[in-house]
Q: What sequence folds into this?
């Protein structure tokens, strides 16, 4: 099924040492890594990846725990799903494909992985685009009523003892449908075929558990890493593009570029007239923004 979303792309499965990462690769030109968010897969890039492949070598992956990538075990530290571990996977994938320096665009959880990658692997990330997030540390430190209501899943998915896994597993299709539809501001997006593919992957109990671990890591080990960076004054030093949906919880809650200037030295960005799923709801604007931003030199 995924191959039908990316005509002309090659499907690959790359061993990183800790995981096997599922991905599609297509196009030609400077390498561009695309990272998806929750509760989706690399299929979220289906409307933009083929167009970006006219100018870039596009690599769209499934994060560990998601889609058809491996679901490694994790312990009480949740380090197995830290953004550091997930970023290491993706750097290994790009290295296996022959790309030591590359561009990165991430949406939602993928943007959090990309944020960590830009800090831990500065020599690899030439430019970074984040789609519809504020940094994890800032998000937890600025929760208000709007964020708590519309971002309830941040606090639901981190609950211990398998509670969210049990509840989601009992009504997986309903949970997925509610989550995705409530975050989209565009009726009918994502379309039925994409939703069917998301459900195929998300219905796996191992995926449900792994994605909860992703959020548990964000509330524990990821915050520890973020606090260490904050105390050291460490910021993203590559050029950063920030895009957000006007009606998303991020877009309606934060001064997005101002927030990111606390975490990066070279920030530009703008809102997109849509909800959370920018690449699916506004593919034309997404392609234009990413193409222009990533037209810069890989060495800068």
A:
């Amino acid at each position: 099924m995924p191959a039908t979303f990316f005509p002309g792309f090659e499907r690959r499965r790359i061993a990183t040492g800790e995981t096997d990462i599922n991905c599609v690769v297509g196009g030609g030109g400077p390498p561009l890594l695309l990272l998806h968010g929750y509760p989706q897969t690399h299929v979220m890039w289906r409307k933009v990846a083929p167009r970006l492949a006219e100018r870039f070598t596009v690599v769209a992956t499934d994060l560990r725990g998601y889609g058809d990538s491996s679901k490694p075990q994790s312990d009480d530290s949740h380090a197995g799903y830290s953004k550091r571990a997930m970023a290491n996977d993706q750097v290994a994938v790009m290295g296996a494909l022959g790309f030591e320096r590359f561009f990165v665009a991430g949406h939602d959880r993928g943007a959090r992985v990309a944020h960590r990658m830009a800090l831990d692997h500065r020599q690899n990330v030439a430019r970074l685009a984040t789609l519809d997030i504020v940094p994890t540390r800032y998000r937890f430190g600025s929760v208000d009523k709007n964020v708590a209501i519309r971002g309830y899943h941040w606090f639901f998915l981190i609950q211990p003892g398998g509670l969210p896994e049990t509840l989601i597993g009992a009504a997986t299709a309903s949970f997925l449908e509610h989550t995705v539809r409530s975050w989209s501001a565009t009726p009918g997006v994502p379309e039925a075929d994409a939703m069917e593919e998301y459900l195929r992957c998300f219905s796996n109990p191992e995926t449900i558990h792994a994605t909860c671990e992703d959020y548990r890591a964000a509330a524990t080990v990821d915050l520890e890493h973020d606090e260490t960076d904050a105390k050291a004054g460490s910021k993203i030093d590559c050029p950063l593009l920030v895009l957000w949906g006007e009606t998303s919880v991020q877009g309606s809650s934060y001064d997005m570029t101002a927030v990111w200037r606390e975490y990066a030295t070279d920030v530009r960005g703008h809102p997109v007239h849509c909800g959370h799923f920018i690449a699916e709801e506004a593919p034309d604007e997404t392609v234009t923004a990413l193409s222009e931003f990533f037209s810069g030199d890989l060495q800068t």
Q: What stands out?
A: The radius of gyration is 17 Å. The chain has 14 helices and eight strands.
